[in-house]
TrEMBL record:
Residues 192-201 have a biased composition (Polar residues). The keyword Transit peptide does not apply. GO terms for molecular function: structural constituent of ribosome. It comes from Glossina brevipalpis. Residues 170-191 have a biased composition (Basic and acidic residues). One of its GO terms (cellular component) is mitochondrial large ribosomal subunit. This is Large ribosomal subunit protein bL17m. GO terms for biological process: translation. The keyword Ligase does not apply. Keywords: Ribonucleoprotein, Ribosomal protein. Residues 170-201 are annotated as: Disordered. Belongs to the bacterial ribosomal protein bL17 family.
């Protein structure tokens, strides 16, 4: 399959993922390069998060998206989809995981099935861009920071002010109750003293 045919296949995806042919050097030539991509797609569906070099991750991402998209679209009774899964997945038990786990997870999603993040490079050593490729909904902790608790966000500032207003109202209610109770006690004390009998020795 040449690059033009791959581009046609990619255009049928629900999510737009560019098909880029990277220069993945391999002593076995194109066959070894394709085997490397098959191993990458297999590892991605098996572990759901992998760390690798950027060029291979960027290209394998498109094939993983294509595989999951076809599995969702045609199901496990479609011959061409089963052949595609059989080709890309070197571990055959992952075919069941594709249709039983990933298809229900992604069938109603409107975003890409994969995410890719930049990873820190090894230092010292050769500079090669590294990345983390993962499937959405994986069981691992998130790689992105949760900024929802940032104090300078507008919604957090508004919530803080609303919380302060609520506390002021509650303190005012408690102070009013306490003030009313003390005035009642002051009025009651003289009456009780006048009613009490005097004890003379």
């Amino acid at each position: 399959m040449n690059q033009a045919d791959v581009g046609k296949l990619m255009s049928q995806l629900r999510i737009s993922i560019q098909a880029r042919k990277r220069n993945l050097k391999n002593p076995k030539g194109e066959e070894g390069r394709l085997l490397k991509l098959r191993k990458t797609v297999t590892a991605l569906l098996k572990h759901e998060r992998i760390e690798l070099y950027y060029n291979r991750a960027d290209e394998a991402r498109g094939y993983a998206e294509l595989l999951i998209s076809n599995a969702i679209r045609y199901g496990d009774r479609h011959k061409a989809t089963m052949e595609l899964a059989d080709f890309w997945l070197l571990e055959k038990q992952l075919v069941h995981k594709l249709f039983k786990v990933f298809v229900p997870r992604f069938e109603n999603t409107s975003v890409s099935y994969t995410r890719m993040y930049a990873a820190p490079r090894d230092y010292p050593g050769m500079y090669y861009k590294k990345s983390v490729l993962e499937l959405r909904g994986n069981p691992y902790p998130s790689l992105t920071r949760d900024y929802s608790h940032n104090r300078s966000f507008l919604h957090n500032i508004l919530l803080d002010e609303a919380r302060k207003d609520y506390k002021r109202e509650k303190f005012a209610e408690v102070a009013d109750k306490h003030g009313a109770q003390t005035t009642e006690d002051k009025h009651k004390k003289p009456e009780t003293q006048s009613q009490a009998p005097e004890i003379t020795a």
